[in-house]
Write a structure and sequence with these properties.
six-stranded antiparallel sheet, single chain, mainly beta, 221 residues, nine-stranded antiparallel sheet
């Protein structure tokens, strides 16, 4: 059973995996790897964001690199979901969900549309395709869970932090099983699991609208 409480939400899950911290020399630890930064400003789909982005028409979605952003458009299907994920990065060790990950997004959808949103994929499990999705919408934010029960909203709230059509940065900071979620550096939601998150990370679009992704950053724990 999953329990949700907004502004400090507690989500009880069962995730079982031990993650051992690697340390090659306890007397002189190696410098932490540099953050992974993707600006989506490149023009080669084979290079940008690990080459996993969808480009061109794939109904109902159309993806494009505009030169300053990655854009996803969906004009017809309010129930559609499109996401792209990473499970490994050069020089990164351990699960990518550990540490801090952020993305700057712009959502252009109807002001009365409480579903359409864009943001982060967290703890993506390749074997089951389960994940969390933390998104900003036209009027607020939402947290979704995809598992054996399908995709469902755990939290969906209007918020004065969000301005329709404006760029907002979503951040997830994860240590073990504790996850803190932020919009533009303001804390909005917390998650706590029974074990460390061990899945992949990425970007997601939900519903009908135009969604832009401008900067994606992953920092090691």
């Amino acid at each position: 059973m999953i329990h949700v409480r907004t502004l400090g939400a507690l989500i009880a899950l069962t995730l079982v995996l031990g993650v051992a911290a690697a340390q090659t020399n306890p007397l002189a630890p190696a410098p932490a790897p540099a953050p992974y930064v993707e600006t989506f400003s490149g023009s080669d789909p084979a290079v940008v964001f690990g080459g996993v982005l969808s480009i061109g028409a794939d109904a109902p979605w159309t993806g494009a690199l505009t030169g300053s952003a990655y854009e996803l458009r969906n004009a017809t299907d309010g129930g559609a979901v499109r996401f792209h994920y990473l499970t490994s990065l050069p020089g990164a060790s351990g699960p990518l969900s550990q540490g801090a990950v952020s993305v700057e997004v712009v959502v252009r959808a109807g002001a009365s549309d409480d579903v359409a949103g864009a943001g982060l994929i967290l703890d993506y499990q390749e074997a089951t395709r389960d994940y969390f999705a933390f998104v900003v919408t036209a009027r607020g934010y939402a947290l979704y869970r995809r598992d054996a029960q399908g995709l469902r909203a755990l939290v969906a709230e209007a918020s004065d932090l969000v301005r329709a059509g404006a760029a907002h940065r979503l951040t997830a900071r994860t240590t073990g099983g504790q996850v803190d979620l932020f919009i533009d550096d303001t804390f909005v939601l917390g998650l706590e699991s029974g074990g460390p998150l061990d899945g992949g990370i990425g970007i997601v679009a939900i519903g009908a609208g135009t969604f832009e992704y401008r900067t994606f950053v992953r920092q090691v724990p």
